Amino acid sequence: MASGLLALLDDVAALVKVSAASLDDVPAQVSKTTGKVSGIVIDDTAVTPKYVVGLDPSRELTIIYHIAKRSLLNKVLLLSPAALILGFFAPWAIPPILMLGGAFLCFEGYEKVHSMFSSHHTDDAENSGEGMNVITPEELEKERIKGAVRTDLILSAEIVAITYSTVADKPLTNQIAVMLAVAVFITIAVYGFVGLIVKADDIGLHLAKEKHHASVRSIGQGIVKFMPHLLKILSYVGTAAMLWVGAEIIAHGIPYTSHLLHDLDLALAHMPALAWFVKALVCALGGLALGFVIEKVVVLVRRLLKK
Description:
mainly alpha, 11 helices
């Protein structure tokens, strides 16, 4: 009896050691995954500030908090369990789902590029005031939060799917730990930075007050002047990241294009920075072309449905 109990304890101890050794690799896996989803993170960060534009400044951080909370809950309670279940019962479905998400990112990226070059039409429509409904600030706030959460859900699904794909061959404990860590880290990083961006104007105005030293006031004025330019830069970077990430996801799902990207990496292996830039540029241009095709298909389908 005693020997049997000791053997059982030995087995438990061995299992604990294996689990501990496995979990030691979690930080490295989180770091690797975070690098892979950086493009989506940049886009999420660049897109979110627009949802608080025009709202009560005193409500900005509250709105961002609600969006961040919903984003984290979606990742932890909805998307991560769905990815784990799907990966267990139908792992073959992960790549096609990733590619569909990549196609959507290309479509969204193309729409943003198209809107940049046709913004005057939008301005004319907005200035005309036709078809606009008058809503209360509370209703507008709710609509903005819903819109932000809807966009974030799509981007979060891509983040979770990519995260799962990097740990699909790891033990279940590792998968859960990495997915939870990535969900928490990315949500805090994205919405913490978004909060800082949104409140940068207020920080700048506070520093620019007469009670501060001239050098401090100069910094505050510089922040206020620079913020509109930063938001515009973030918008461009976010759009480029959308196209790049979406196209790269699709390219890795197709053997031929995956080999081409691999060959490109090998050809420029002696210049890593140039290799990254060239691959990102090629993917972004490919994503733009694919987004153009998808947009035409979507327009055609809408017309057929109307008929």
